[in-house]
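User: I'm writing a tutorial on reading structure tokens. Could you give me a worked example: one chain, its sequence, then its tokens, then a sentence or two explaining what the tokens reveal?
Assistant: Sure. Here is the example chain.
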Amino acid sequence: MKLLVIEDELDLQESIELTLSAEGFSIETASDFPTAEEKIFLYDYECIIVDLTLPGNGSGLDLIKKLKEKESNSGIIIISARDSLDDKLKGLDIGADDYLTKPFHLSELSARIKSIIRRRGLMGLNEYVFHEITIILEGRKAIVNGNELILTKKEYDLLLYFIMNKNRILSKEMIVEHLWGDEVSTMADSLDFVYTHIKNLRKKLIDKGCKDYVQTVYGIGYKFSEA
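And here are its predicted structure tokens:
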């Protein structure tokens, strides 16, 4: 799942990125208002962690307002040294899901992120079932017909992305943006590596007795569907 960390204190930004990456999240970062504004309009994120005070011509509150104007479904957590009740109420009133005052424990931030993602994306459940496939979010596991499916990190992320967007056509570009984010700029211009990941995931699912839900929509992308 892809997160955006908007924080101008680089030491704190790096600590958050390392902690959340170790827990299996795909992390993108922004250190100023213009970069953050560009990213929230280009990409979709499961959750956005945003500081209120940022370099550039705008604040974290301005970014939240823009996200709401965009009708974004991203969860939003404010992290700020401001601990006044007025600041917290203002942030929550304009659409943030949570407010965490600095300094905070990174484990608490992680727990709040997971709670928001479960609430927003998977209706509060830790398990998500699609026919014979069960996704266990907390342990990052996939079960098919009662047997654990051994997946790489990217294969697991791809399966979860497919299932959360079932019956929706996903282009290669959408898959790349979601799973690799900023990393893709360092990869080859060709998107053939997406096909390789999808082929490997598809084979593993079928080998466990799963139906072939991955459909190729020629010239466009892929769709995860039982039809």
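What the tokens reveal: DSSP finds eight helices and twelve strands in the chain. Residues 106-121 form the longest helix (16 residues).
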